[in-house]
C-alpha cells in the first residue's frame, strides 16, 4: 500500500462539497383560477402544492438537482445565509430580486447593473451566472473583497488568479464559486501565497467534486510539504485532470514520496510539471521509482531541481523501464558524466522518448560521448537540447560526426545554444543537410587561420601560468571559493565518496571525487590543495578537517564583507584568479 493511501484520514472525510450538499427547493407551482364569468384571476403561487409535488419526486430526481447550500459553507463563521442560499436556487429570479435578497447594494453596477424588468433573460444582468452570484455573496459574508478579474472569468472556461495574496477566506469564497460553476476547465493560481494561508487545502477539498477541471496550475505559491501531501491525496484517484503544474512550490526531497505514489497510482494525468523545486539527490531517487512504474504520463518537467549524482543516475535508469513518456525536461540540474551515462543506457532500449532537454547540466565532451552510445541505437528521439553546456567546439563537431556516421539516429533538431563551432563543423553540417532534414542551433563560427589545437595549446600554456599563481594562495580558501563559484559544496562531495561512513577519505579518493565534478585544476595542483586539508599529516582527509577548513573560509568571507574593499581582500583576489583560470578553460557557467 502506498504511503499516501496509508495516511488517508479515517472515516468519511467531509470536504466542502460533501459537507454542504442540499436538495434544491422545488420550483413554485403557478396556478390560475377562473371566476364564473370566465375571466382569469391574477396568478398566485401555491407553496403547499409545491411541497406535495416535491415529496412525490423520485430519489433520482432529487439527486439530480443537488446544489451547494451557501448557508453552511462558512465553517466557523456564524452568518445567516438564508437569503443568500435563496439567490442561487434554480427557479427564475430577477437580478433585482437577487440584489435585494442577498443584501448586495443595488447601485453596485460593477457586478449587477440595475434592471427594469423582473425577467433575467431581458436584463443586462442575464450574463451573470450562479457561480458569480455565489462568489459575490460569499465575499460579502466572509468579509473579503471581490476580485473583479476572477468574477469575470467565471463565465469563461479558464479561471486565473495572478500575483494576489489570498487569505483563507479569499480562497474559500473562490472555492464556493467554483463549486457552483460547471464551465471552468482550467484553474490557475500563481503567486498567491497559498502556502502561508493554507488555502491549498481548500482547493484540494473541492477537486473531487470538479470533474470539469482538466488543467490545474498552482505555481509559485510555496505550498511546501503540506500542499504536496494534500494535493497528491485527492489526486490519487482523480481521472479528470490531465495537466498539473506545480512549479516553484518549495518541495523538498522527502516530498518526492507523495509524487512517487501519485505517479504510481494516478491513471489520468498526462502532463506533470515539478520544475523549480528542491528535490535534490534523494528526491531524484524517489521520483525515479514513480517514473519507472508510470504508464500514463506523456510529458514530465523536472528542471531546476538540483538533481545530480545518485539522483541523476536514478532518473536516467528509470527511463529504461518507462516506455510511455514522450517529453522529458531535465534542464538546469547536474547530470554530468554519470547522469548522461545512465541516460545513454536508457536510450538504447527506450522507444517512446521524442524530446530530451539537458540545458545547463555540465555536459562535457566526455558526458556527450556517454549519451551518444545510446543515441546511435535509438530510433525515436527527435529533439535534443544541449545549450549552456561546456561542450567546446570539439564536442559539437563530435556530435555532428556521429550523426553523419550513423543514419539510424532519428534526431532532426539539436539546440547547442551559443556554442561556438569551427569551419569544419559548418561544412559537415551543410553536407549532412543534403542527406537528411536537420535543424541545429549554434553560435559563432571560429574563422581564425590558426587550428583549434594550436589555440588550445596556447590557452593551456597561459592557463598553467595562472594556476601556478593561484597555488601560491591558501589552498583551503582556493578549494572552497572554487566550489562556491561552481555551485557545489566540497562537504557534499566528501559525503558522497564516504560510502562506508567512516568520516575519512584517502587523498586519492577525495581527488577522484573532485574530478567527478569536473574541477579544472591539473592533478598536481589538485594534490597540493588536498595536502592543505590534511592538517594532521595522517595521509587522509577527515571530515573534521574539512569542516574546520570550511569554518575558516566562512570567517575570511565575513571579514571581507565587513571591510570596505572586498575586491582587494585575500578572498577577493583568490576569487578573481579562479575566474581567470576557468575563463581560459572555457568552463565558467553564466546564470
Brief characterization of the structure:
By secondary structure, the protein is of the alpha/beta class. It has 26 helices and 19 strands. The protein is globular and about 75 Å long.
What features would you describe in this structure?
There is one protein chain. The protein is of the alpha/beta class and 591 residues long. The chain has a domain at 452-584: EF-hand (Recoverin, domain 1, Orthogonal Bundle). Helix content is 46%, strand content 10%. It contains 26 helices and 19 strands. The strands form five sheets. An eleven-stranded parallel beta sheet has the order 5-6-7-8-9-10-11-12-13-14-16. The radius of gyration is 32 Å and the shape is globular.
Question: What is the topology?
Answer:
Blueprint: H1 3-6, H2 16-19, E1 21-23, E2 30-31, E3 44-45, H3 47-55, H4 59-64, E4 66-68, H5 82-86, H6 95-102, H7 130-141, H8 148-153, E5 158-162, H9 168-179, E6 186-190, H10 194-197, H11 199-206, E7 215-219, H12 224-235, E8 243-245, H13 256-265, E9 271-273, H14 280-293, E10 299-301, H15 310-321, E11 327-329, H16 336-349, E12 355-357, H17 365-375, E13 383-385, H18 392-405, E14 413-415, E15 421-422, H19 423-433, E16 439-441, E17 445-446, H20 452-470, H21 475-485, H22 490-497, E18 504-506, H23 507-516, H24 523-533, E19 540-542, H25 543-562, H26 570-584
Parallel strand pairs: 5-6, 6-7, 7-8, 8-9, 9-10, 10-11, 11-12, 12-13, 13-14, 14-16, 15-17
Antiparallel strand pairs: 1-4, 2-3, 18-19
